Amino acid sequence: MDRKKKNILIWNLAFIGVIIGISFFIYKASLRVNYSWNWRAVPSYLVYKSQNEIDSPTNGFVEGYKDGAVIIKSTEGKLLRVKVKHPTVSKGAVVSIGDEVGYNSSYKAGPLLMGLYMTIKVSLLSIIMALVIGFIVGLMRISDNPLFKNLAIVYIELIRGTPLLVQIFIIYFFIGTIFSMTRFFAGAFALAVFEGAYIAEIIRAGIQSIPRGQTEAAVALGMNYYQVMRYIIMPQAIKRVLPALAGQFISLIKDSSLLSVISLTELTKAGKEIVSSTFSPFEVWFSVAALYFIVTYTLSLLDRYLERRLAGNE
């Protein structure tokens, strides 16, 4: 084994040692907390088994169970089939209207999974709108037209200079009321407006990082502004700004947790509701953090994949 490989092995072992040390510290710290852990309840917050009771629609007695249905003979002599997956009555049993004859069960998404779905849904819509806003404002920011340029500067500085929480309140209670926005769309729009300012600066920096000589050469060949941006500038700029854009998208997903203040039941709001009803804060918030990490890490992996693909096309 050469010296370089030996050093890599040593540092990898050191990394494993640090992870083990941190895990041991967390474990010992958890023992010092006077808290009754209940991790067995966490899976039911993600997926749970629902049971729906099935009642008898008539008075009579049970003839039997066949082909997924309880057969009931009414006092008038009519045979009725009641679809039931799990019967709770036996043949010959006397039943009255409203008596339980069985139940149907199915798996349903729990509150955390529903909250995660809402987080992903609102984040995807926000990302699309933020890209559109950021691209347009980024082009306005580098425009020679004073109107477009100054409007872009005012928007960027105003949005970056005020807290997202305040912007959410303004858009939901003021702009949302004027335009009759739903809670979901108002929240997505607030995130898009906020992140759009940062994306605009990323787009501007990416475009301006391309040597000006390329633009001049393209114009000399007879290309117009649209063709220069479409075929020369943007393909190169996108490759350069992709990591920064991925970082903003990850930030947007995490910022979506603030939408709980307008009662949008995303992942954080779902976690709050579970904690208030179960008094199990640690298990719930650790689970919420893990779900956020899964989503953001998946986005990071997608970004790395796209970077490798774009690098391979050069």
From TrEMBL:
Q: Could you name the Gene Ontology cellular component terms for this entry?
A: ATP-binding cassette (ABC) transporter complex
Recorded hits in InterPro entries, A to Z, give: AA_ABC_transptr_permease_3TM, ArtM/GltK/GlnP/TcyL/YhdX-like, MetI-like, MetI-like_sf
Tell me where in this chain the ABC transmembrane type-1 domain is found.
116-303
Q: Where are the transmembrane segments?
A: 9-27, 116-140, 152-175, 181-200, 284-302
Entry keyword set: Amino-acid transport, Cell membrane, Membrane, Transmembrane, Transmembrane helix, Transport
Q: Which PROSITE patterns match?
A: ABC_TM1
Spell out the molecular function terms from Gene Ontology.
transmembrane transporter activity
How does the entry describe its membrane topology? Multi-pass membrane protein
In terms of superkingdom, the source organism counts as Bacteria
A Gene Ontology BP annotation from the UniProt entry: amino acid transport
Enumerate the subcellular locations listed in this protein's record, separating them with semicolons: Cell inner membrane; Cell membrane
Supply the Pfam families for this chain: BPD_transp_1
Provide the family line: Belongs to the binding-protein-dependent transport system permease family. HisMQ subfamily.
Q: Which NCBIfam families match?
A: HEQRo_perm_3TM (TIGR01726)
Function summary: Part of the binding-protein-dependent transport system for glutamine; probably responsible for the translocation of the substrate across the membrane.
Listed name of the protein: Putative glutamine transport system permease protein GlnP
Origin species, per record, is: Hippea maritima (strain ATCC 700847 / DSM 10411 / MH2)
